[in-house]
Amino acid sequence: MTVHQVKVALGERSYSVLVGHGAINQIDNFVPKLAKRALVVTQKNIPIQPTLKIESTTVFIGDTEEHKSLTTIEMLAQKFAEFGLTRNDVVIGVGGGMVTDVAGFAAASWHRGTSVVHVATSLVGMVDASVGGKTGVNIASGKNLVGAFWQPLGVICDLDALETLTQREMRCGLGEVAKYHFLTGDDLLALEMPARIARCVEIKANIVSADERESGGRALLNYGHTLAHALERSSNFMMAHGEAVAVGMIFAAHVAHSMKRISQARVDEHYRVIGETYGLKVKPDEIINRRELIGLMHLDKKAVSGLTFVLDGPSGIEVVSGVSEMHLEQAFDAMRLNEK
Ligand code: GLY
Prior knowledge:
About 40% of the residues lie in helices and about 20% in strands.
């Protein structure tokens, strides 16, 4: 079966992302020659696991967002020590975005940097989280506030893993795919699944290659994410990331319209693409608390100069700082999102 290969070009840190059914069987290509041991970080119920030629052990982490924590990193570091993992060895993260973020950060900090390979098993993980080297965990003050840029040696997106995903998990991934639609205008749903995922990875790879550490264009990957992160936190992570990104892009369109950056027709296009083409919810199910969400949006990592959003506009999607709360209120009104 065809396995697509997408390159993330980052000089000496360049690597490939393999996308296809059975791609996990190629994992040995990514294991460093000097590695004697591999420690697999995963969760219970992950449907695929690698078979490795070197000595390996598996450590399971919890599967809810509260386990994306410094406590889990400490637990992993202890396991690395007990297993005798050296800097020549390799950590392999097998799971969705939470697993690859945690495994990547544990590897980044173990002996100040140990190799990591990711096997993404969710659609969100494949099209976003596992590619690009962002790793990290949450603290009480916010999501992903502690972390490191740590590029993997390679990424595997094995489509066999998607066969057991729930419809909700697939929809979550589609939230990120819809984001790439707005960033490029590509009709991604016209592609078969392997080619669609490979194209999403390629779009992300191009953005990351141009701006690895998010000093510019990489921030565009956060389209819809300012409200999304706030919604995830205020719902105590009952709202999943991709669902929140879908609503966040609708909100961002309304904010952009309120700032006279885009027309009502472009807002309508967001509803059509996100709600109809991708079949995603355009509003949260729960009643929201605007003040709480606005407070959380002020804490966003992009917000170095007032409220900061990634917004559509006459020159395309770009980062806009110093957005006034009035525009957020107008966006909430337009979406008919009420106070608690
Ligand atoms: N998930 C956004 C990024 O990797 O930059």
